[in-house]
């Protein structure tokens, strides 16, 4: 995790003597006023709460378009749900059941019954906020007396594994906004698919040469695969009905071997669910059109950058570098950043029902026309941020008119601030309406999965470990060359979708035992896991030195609505960032 940055033109604040002299009713309130900065000005075009990736992209876009933006975070670091923590920080976070908000407002500051006036004269009501945890079922163990190294040498991602395609929309966004100037990447050196305990890891081809060097494919299969890749790059020749069909059916039509189909579906197209299981519903089925787009993206990502050997990139120092980079671009454009600043409540118009400001943890009232919040925020009353009994209407001022700009930083996302009313959506009452969860696991090991490689991606297709495995499991190994761990140690992230915690844990433990030596006492052996013939995978396995498991709840997709508040999305189950960028820019 990186230290706070302070661009030359980023505004810094000291508590003013006037603020110190304000009588807020008690010495405790005076102490709070001294601890937190008085923010000036008090009115902004946009206030953003939380420095997660989506929030930071929106702040950068708004600032680049000439908006006056205030960006707050209750934590002492950037990233929120997308942050990277040291080993000690991660342990502390897990011990707090995944609550990220480290700054709590003093109860004397909050007065939910107080009626205020907005700058336009409307009476305002204060809705008190609370921070909810979207994480649960933490388990953390150390299995070896071997020293792990300094805590600050680790940068552990909360939302992992995540990678970006070299040719993906996130990389395009970084390049166009200039955020790439503030970070570095390392390419994934090898991608593998788990082919069963008898065969182990099979390399996923990342070039024409790698296909013909693969000893697991026959010469006929290699030629068939090359013809298929060529067909995908000329998708205009495909029939419309083929594009709308199931991708797995289209692959059957191409008479591809089952091993190749599995590789395309789960290691290249990155399907999360069993594509042969129709009982899971149409929403989990990958269409041919989407599958081909993913395959073309994979092929176009290979070789895009001369120093990137594969299709995927990972940020040096961890995933939190991404939101920090966009925060830097926003700060350069004049956005004000205040860390360690929690928000106590939201100000809502009594008549209009439109959110018009916030109360900070210091007791200060700040006003805005647009409000962006992270997904952990909810009302203390338990109601929705968009109560059904309120009839919201468009503000009299209408949309914000953006100045013309030729700045390349807004080329890709130039419509975000101007279409803010269309992209803002309400916060729902319950964060747990989605039946699926993401089970995540982090291991620290003593050696690499592959002796000559440091950054390695492993994909376990559905049913590749045991018959009840209905979703894809992914594992990402990172070494010291990515600056996420000390020399001689490796960080390995695992994740999978699950409907309940026990199911997710069973799947991840089985995947871990397929790759590493895990002491028998680390968990209870299930009948499924104990039946695995893992010893057939003959090689010297890395040892797991440290292990943590937790579950992240997924929030439901929200409908767009014309209102003055937007909730940013949580990290999801996908490997890459396409969905996040799409939801931010559409």
Automatic annotation (TrEMBL):
One of its GO terms (molecular function) is GTPase activator activity. Its main location: cytoplasm. The keyword Cytoplasm applies. GO terms for cellular component: cytosol; nucleus; Rab-protein geranylgeranyltransferase complex. Residues 438-558 form the RAE1/2 domain. Gene3D superfamilies: FAD/NAD(P)-binding domain, Guanine Nucleotide Dissociation Inhibitor, domain 2. It comes from the Eukaryota. InterPro entries: FAD/NAD-bd_sf (IPR036188), GDP_dissociation_inhibitor (IPR018203), Rab_escort (IPR001738), RAE1_2_domI_C (IPR054420). Pfam families: GDI (PF00996), RAE1_2_domI_C (PF22603). The keyword Transferase does not apply. SUPFAM superfamilies: FAD-linked reductases, C-terminal domain (SSF54373), FAD/NAD(P)-binding domain (SSF51905). Signal peptide: none annotated. GO terms for biological process: intracellular protein transport; small GTPase-mediated signal transduction; vesicle-mediated transport. Keywords: Cytoplasm, GTPase activation. It is found in: Cytoplasm, Cytosol. Belongs to the Rab GDI family. This is RAE1/2 domain-containing protein. It comes from Taxus chinensis (Chinese yew).
